[in-house]
Fold these 2 entries.
Entry 1:
Amino acid sequence: MRNILLTIKYDGSGYHGWARQPGLKTVCGRMEEVLGAYFKIPVELSGASRTDAGVHAYGQRATLITELGVPVEKIPRVFNTALADDRLEGLSDIEVTAAAEMPEGFHARFDSKGKRYIYRIRNSSAPDIFLKRYRWQITTPLDIDSMRAACPFVVGEHDFACFQSAGSPAGSTVREIYSLDIKRREDDPDEIELTIEGSAFLYNMVRIITGTLVETGLGKRAPEDMERVIASKDRANAGIVAPAGGLWLDEVFY
Amino acid sequence: MRNILLTIKYDGSGYHGWARQPGLKTVCGRMEEVLGAYFKIPVELSGASRTDAGVHAYGQRATLITELGVPVEKIPRVFNTALADDRLEGLSDIEVTAAAEMPEGFHARFDSKGKRYIYRIRNSSAPDIFLKRYRWQITTPLDIDSMRAACPFVVGEHDFACFQSAGSPAGSTVREIYSLDIKRREDDPDEIELTIEGSAFLYNMVRIITGTLVETGLGKRAPEDMERVIASKDRANAGIVAPAGGLWLDEVFY
């Protein structure tokens, strides 16, 4: 059996997230179904991140244990041909961008050393309906300096219970955040990018951190408030959950 | 009763087209439902164009006969507040961009003098999955000069039976095309825009004309073939139906 690590890009707009769920259209479910039918063998993927409904990915990773004989360098092209859901366009909203042969026992999630997410905000007085699925559009000007001043409190190893949505599985809520940065794009100052890297993330953690930072940027919270929110370990003290469409899984580290 | 002409922009990705259909999510159906609930009066819209599932609009027009007292200049803002399907984002994928008071009897469709559609193609060897819903992505280089050479045959008053999808309602298939132009965008040569203006259009007409022109740009047809296709009045001689997502209703003329 081969163990293949795939790098996968997808537009999450049309999916109920990554993880397979009976009766729902999910990214993992669709890949398993389409590739299984194409190669006439059962296909099972293990993803590095269970992205939520509407969340996008540039660099999701998933391992595939398979007897498939396709040479590893041909896998992206062959898989993308199989995934093309429209003969006319030859294009899917899921794309395998890379494949690598891994030793037996390697697992996309358990062996990951961390992940980077990007949260994209469009901060313009004129919202663009065609970006609704890809940006959080905020029409009130955000004070980036205040948002940046709140970031250092998030970095480091902390109990992040305050940033976990209700209904999460029990377990330790200690995680390590390696870095958190916010900047306006130089080529388009309406575009704000929040980049966060960490060992692992709690359920909805990036979206709640973003919501809390946006409330800071709107002047509803002082930057130092972030320290108190984290120390409180109480979800009620943190901000709103930012919309799914602005979130992009950028990279998984090994 | 007032008669109000609305200008409407929408992202057609998530809709089964404009026209109301029982049990399906359509742009007209959603507007009627949301506005009716918001103002607590029945709302009925008559659109200028029955755009298909997945087709977008910058400038759809629709008339609304109503007793609603909202001043006309406030209608876009009030309607957009009602349409915002997410309190967090305050944004819908439908936007009313203008409203005008019209005399009794005026009708968005029957009084229109013509329409302009834009068909957007991304002609790049590297397709972008995030543009799947908004462009026809063609990876083989298109010969724009050949496509342009075929355009003059389409302009004018003709029987366009060849450009009508099977299953269309019976009736005259004579229409007048005022202009048809194709160009690469100067700021991004991968983007090709086909702009067509006409009195009215048959079912799938713009998408079949686009498909025929793309086959010309791929060298599968000579530009002069367009004249023979039209003269034949036979759908079988024309090209494929271009994907819905590339089509944008740009403007309706009165």
Entry 2:
Amino acid sequence: MRIGIAGYGNLGKALERLAEDNPDVEIRGVYTRRNKEEVVTDGAPVYSFDDLYYHTDEIDVLALCYGSSTDLPRLTPELSAYFNTVDAFDNHSLIDEYKRRVDSVAKASGKTSVIALGWDPGLLSLMRLYFSSFLPNSSVNTFWGRGVSQGHSEALRRIDGVKQAIQYTVPREDALTLASLVAHPLSNVERHRRVCYIVAEKGKEDFITREVLSMENYFAGYEVELHFISEEEMHKYHSSMTHRGRIYALGMSGRYKEVKHSAYLDLDIGSNPDLTASVMLAGARAAHKLSLENKNGAYTVFDIPPSYFAPKECKNVNNYL
Amino acid sequence: MRIGIAGYGNLGKALERLAEDNPDVEIRGVYTRRNKEEVVTDGAPVYSFDDLYYHTDEIDVLALCYGSSTDLPRLTPELSAYFNTVDAFDNHSLIDEYKRRVDSVAKASGKTSVIALGWDPGLLSLMRLYFSSFLPNSSVNTFWGRGVSQGHSEALRRIDGVKQAIQYTVPREDALTLASLVAHPLSNVERHRRVCYIVAEKGKEDFITREVLSMENYFAGYEVELHFISEEEMHKYHSSMTHRGRIYALGMSGRYKEVKHSAYLDLDIGSNPDLTASVMLAGARAAHKLSLENKNGAYTVFDIPPSYFAPKECKNVNNYL
């Protein structure tokens, strides 16, 4: 399988490195919008973004390693006219529209796009669907973190007077306990607190604090912790890329719902971009197989039979004992 | 969705009760090979097994609530000529042949059979496949129990001098620790010990002990605990239907494989037949939907897009946030 890597940030770099462990994968090239002379890879050839259009026959799946806020919504529909693609689009509120747009282009051009495939949305979405569908009378709660939320960090950076900022999403301990004991869906506000580290311009701390605490959809209503730190501290203590996702699913059966069932998943992530890249690589396999069967359009994990992700042949359930 | 229940043991009874919680499900009837006058249900009409052939147009999916050792291998290929079916066939070594036989009949008759769908094989098979495919350089270990293994209990009962017997599969504590720390696949013998409770004929204890400890594929090589107990004790202490399944998946990434990722699943089952029935009900939904799309043949969970199991409409990953 010949993979093209479009975008060479943390995600693209992780994907290149992972390919070394997968003998069935060849990295055809890294495609960048920066000056290609300035991009140093681990060995993969570097091309300009525009060279992509000369390589349409040499790439089986193009891995789109861009952000979800502006790049993917614009680039994926464009590129899915020429390539099978895989991406980790994670803007939940826009995903329906995104899927429709990519689907219509890919169907028209006979290409296959696997979209929104990372660890969440992606792996954790699958767990929630299966737990919800398979456990009787089930209730499911997801907890993210401790780990950086890019969206919330960017929201902080847009505030006047913020020079640098990072936001950790952290599960509330009381909510973790509750979710493990009681079949009741908790809100995002009930499940998480938001811990912010900010490098601020002098004297702007009070203004920033008020702005953060009143920001609707991001911080208002949440338990928020604000720490104003120096640039040096930011650099020294806040470069970790670990993350974590936990799901508590509880079900009940029996005449009086007296029989309890539970499924608990704990995904502990050493490097967010590395795991995302690994899931995307499995998604590239699925896109490639679907494409070989002329199954075109936009697919999420919910639309794809699990066997399509397996690196080895997988004809039956006893292949994964 | 109109469900027929073929076989009315613990599994069939659990399925009938669960249907009450699912407004989209109607139990068309319970079909029994026993004298139907002696079968008392929770409300569903009771028919003789042979009446099935008069109800082919009134049942959307037939749930086959039989054992895997003799009944399912014989009955599923027969019934899949007339019905969409779902079953929890769990004899791993025979599953390839079973799938081929059911597939050819179902394809020829335009029916859909979802096979081998319980919590394992089934839910845990899915988790293993996804963890294996999505985590980089992954290693996966499954632990069953503490819970009763029907196959091992039956193997004990076949020994001369055994009046009653039950076998609990129990994870070894040392193996649980190892699997949580080291990416290395452990053998079944390394992962589990086998705890047996036996009601024996007088004076047969030594003979039975030798037979058990030397039984290949079942007990030989394992850490085995044997307890000879009275019929009264068997009745009083060994009727629980709880079970448990745990999966440890470890992955690693980075240039020197220095970055660790882990996925841990803990499925705690209050009643083995209740959970199996619940999973089968989701499988019946999938069989029904596949059949409506004229997708015929035998399907395992690996062949079915996840969305087919969802009780609610499921067009996109944001339907399971």
